[in-house]
Fold tRNA-specific adenosine deaminase.
Amino acid sequence: MDEFFMKLAIEEAKKAEQLGEVPIGAVIVKNNEVIASAHNLRETTKNAVTHAELLAIEKACEAVGSWRLEETTLYATLEPCPMCSGAILLSRIDRVVYGAVDPKAGCAGTLMNLLDDSRFNHRCEVVSGVLAGECGMLLTTFFRDLRQKKKEQKQKMKE
């Protein structure tokens, strides 16, 4: 089941990519049913907190009519950052499944694991590496293409 729902998160990431956003997607599932999905909108909104996970959490809260998202699983194509990990904990999500690790900001096992820190009053089960290759390739291709575009723009300015 994890791969099925991760594929839906990947579809969300592709929507972000079409908008020129970093391709990250998130899906929240309860009782094997998607209750929310979202993708990165930080560049579109010019708002630092419009990460895929936070937008999905907001939609899920609306869907269930509560800030408590107990008995849910969040699927994200990239390991959650500190901000998203905090929101995951505070919304009481039980389980987080992510694809690619984030060596720069990952807080679900890479730099630290906020989601399983016994000092908090809530902890999440964390499953990493689900469709990691596909999730990682989306990001690698996006940033490679972005660097190439910037290089071409510099060349044009020199001419």
Notes: The longest strand covers residues 33-39.
